[in-house]
Amino acid sequence: MFNRETWIEIAHTVTANPLRTALTGLSVGLGIFILVVMQGLGFGLQNGVEQDFGDEARNTVWVRTGRTTLPYRGRQPNRYVQMRNEDEQRITEQVVDAPAWSGRRMMWGSTVGYKNEQGNYPIVGVEPDFDELELLPLMGGRWLHADDLAKESKVCVVGENLLDELFKQDEAIGAFITLRGITFRVVGHFSKNGRWGNSMVYVPLTTMQRVFNGSDEVDQMVLSTGELDLEGSSAMVEAVDGDLRMRHSVHPDDVRAVRVRDNQEEYAMFERVFTGIRLFIWVIGGFTLLAGAIGVANIMAIVVKERTVEIGVRKALGATSGSILSLIVIEAIALTLISGALGLIAGVATLNAVAPYAEHDYFADPEVNLRVTLTALAVLVVAGAISGFVPALRAVRIRPIEALRYE
Amino acid sequence: MLALRGIEKSYPLAGGSLPVLKGIDLNIAQGEMVAIMGSSGSGKSTLLNVLGLLDGFDSGGYDLDGVDMAGLSEKQAARYRSQFLGFVFQSFNLISFKTALENVALPLFYQKVPRRERQKRAMEMLGKMGMDDRADHLPSELSGGQKQRVAIARALITSPRVILADEPTGALDSTTSSEVMEVLREVNASGITVIIVTHEADIAAQCDRTIRLHDGVIIEDGRSGEVVEPTARGARSQG
User: Fold this and answer.
1) Which among A8, A318, A322 has the least Cβ separation from residue B107?
2) How far apart (Å, rounded) are the C-alpha atoms in residues A216 and B179?
3) Minimal CA–CA distance to A63: which of A90, A39, A37?
4) Helix, strand, coil percentages for chain A (3-state, nearest 5)
5) DSSP result, A20-43
């Protein structure tokens, strides 16, 4: 059945009808191509957003403040709302019951020196829980302890970039570096994705407040929502927001002065969008596939009808029904398989060609879901086989003399 | 060579069945040249289907070369067709995308003859038909008479014992017709039984024996010169 002669015979019939070969190939190839590209773009979008979220634990609430935009209770607008240690203390002790939290304060472009090397890096003051809130994978040494904060120790944890750029071959842990001219001891280092993530130098918040600013200011707060569901975390957001607005006399509608963002809610929103996009891709992909399958079925039906006479001749010349059926079915399978594979290759090539130009915060690594694609290809091949088999079965059942007078 | 005993066949129709062959008794000896005549609907095409093992029958017996053909499987029938029978058709039925040579070689493909051997034998057969200079032509590049020569070459390639020709000259002008009949007579002279279905009296006249079919039964059977009843002109067989 699968000998060389059969293939020569198939190659002959396929090349003898270039138009319908091209049409079948196009309907299958295009179907697979569209499916691959759509899936790839969908995945790219999802990857992009997931990478964006990868920085932070999903069950966190970020609290930020800014300048007021609305007058309220006799206060003029354009006043900067500054959170302080007392706010953090009050919120974590009285307003909400967060399992973990951290204040955060950041100093961009700080000069960091080690021996003769120096560079500019952001220094970030945080508290011990921060590494769980922002998912910082520690690669060596230790993270900041409660003890470091209590003693206002001059210790720091540095990102991978500093290892490469400042320490080079030297052992970083235990080394002394200067942050804005003040000597700190490195106790740990970490590695994470992203442009800025690896350039950070983390120091205890208390040390930063004492050494660099001499104040009790906190720029941001991160609170863990623990095991709370979306409803619970939303309640937490409400409570924190309400408390800050009341304490700092901020208008309830002022969206700039107090910003409390729930990662879980944002992620849930993106999840909903993705579910929608995925569904959309599936529906389009499904219909593309269906159109391809119908195209193949249509063409095969016409082909077999066209070849009814040929089938009759072959039977009269000693062909068995089985040999004719297998000829047509193998032909249909070969045709769909080859054109499907071409569509697959074209789709992957297109994605690879487009990917470098489509770099964006919300788009990364458009990948081809091979399982989905191969399933689609299998569906089309089976559709091709069936749509060849059914009319061919009808054709071989026609008595040859009738078939030969078919014209 | 061929022996039919009381062959009956009917085709199922909605709400009953249509009897087409109503008891055919027929003996054809090796080396005979026989014309089967009859008007449209007389059952001659069905008889040809049965003789050619392209269709079964309801009752009766059919011996081909002394072997009972009743209840053959599809596969066995295909093998006997391939070994014993050669077909020639009115509309030639050459496969349009194959060259003359490939068309002639096709029956050998179904006998699983190796490709090189097929080509060689097909070329020899085309030579015998005086068509070897047209071996690489597609059917569309051949005249009617040339097409029928290729078709006869194709029927003869497997060295069959019987050639079944269905209106072999139906699509040809009178000059070409007589050329083709000449070829068939030569084939017959080599010892091969030739059975021609036709509605043309002058074609039948060139055979040794004429059988006339009417309404599913044989009404006349005799030497060609003696079966004289004219066939209605214009009643070209449609099956």
Assistant:
1) A318
2) 117
3) A90
4) 55, 20, 25
5) HHHHHHHHHHHHHHHHHHHHHHHH
Q: Calculate the CA A241 to chain-centre distance.
A: 31
Burial label, B88 (beta-carbon count in 10 A; 0-12, 13-18, 19+): buried
Out of A9, A400, A407, the one facing B54 most closely (by C-beta) is A400
Distance separating alpha carbons of residues A147 and A95, to the nearest angstrom: 25
Cβ neighbours of A170 (radius 10 Å): 11
Distances (CA, A) of A354 to A179, A363, A366: 43, 12, 9
CATH at B162: 3.40.50.300
> Is the residue at B23 inside a domain?
no
**C-alpha distance from B61 to closest chain A C-alpha (Å):** 20
- A16 contacts B115? CB cut-off 8 A: no
* Within a domain: B236: no
User: What pLDDT digit, counting tens, does each position of B99-113 carry?
Assistant: 999 999 999 988 888
Cβ contact B74:B154 at 8 Å: no
Task: Please check whether residue B77 lies inside any domain of the structure.
Answer: yes
Total structural domains in chain B? Answer: 1
The answer to whether A187 and A130 are in contact (CB under 8 A) is no
**Cα distance between residue A195 and residue A321, in whole Å:** 67
Contact flag A316-B54 (C-beta cutoff 8 Å)? yes
Select from A3, A308, A317, A325 the residue whose CB has the most chain B CBs within 10 Å, as the one to mutate to test that interface.
A317
**Minimal Cα distance from A322: which residue of B?**
B75
* Structure tokens that stand for A160 in this block: 């991978």
Q: What pLDDT, on a 0 to 100 scale, did the predictor assign at position A308? A: 81
Please judge whether A9 and B109 are an interchain contact, meaning their C-beta atoms are less than 8 angstroms apart.
yes
Cβ contacts below 8 Å, chain A against chain B, sum to 81
What does the alpha-carbon distance between residue A354 and residue A38 come to, in Å, rounded to a whole number? 12
* Best A4, A308, A393, A401 residue to mutate vs chain B (most B CBs within 10 Å): A401
B93 closest CA partner among B167, B14, B189, B194: B167
Strands A201-204 and A155-159: antiparallel
The CA-atom distances, in angstroms, between A139 and each of A159, A188, A191, A192, B106 are 9, 8, 6, 10, 74
Q: What range does the domain containing B105 cover?
A: 31-57+73-223
What's the confidence (pLDDT) of residue A400?
Answer: 67
Helix axes A370-397, A321-354, angle to 10 degrees: 150
Q: Which residues of chain B have pLDDT under 70?
A: 225-239
Q: What's the CA gap between A346 and A368, in Å, rounded?
A: 12
Contacts of A313 in chain B (CB under 8 A): 89, 93-95
| Angstrom distance (rounded) from CA B4 to CA B21 | 12
Tokens coding B140 = 């569309």
DSSP B230: P
State residue A24's pLDDT score.
79
Question: In this complex, do A314 and B110 lie within 8 Å of one another by their Cβ atoms?
Answer: yes
- Is the CB of A402 less than 8 angstroms away from the CB of B239? yes
Q: Which two tokens stand for residue A386?
A: 């069936």
Strands B209-214 and B33-37: parallel
User: Closest-CA residue in chain B for A313?
Assistant: B93
The residue ranges of every structural domain in chain A are: 4-53+268-404, 60-261
Radius of gyration of chain A (CA): 34
Which pTM was predicted?
A: 0.63
For residue B164, being part of any structural domain is answered with: yes
Q: Low-confidence residues of chain A, pLDDT below 50?
A: 1, 407
User: What confidence score (pLDDT) does residue A362 get?
Assistant: 66
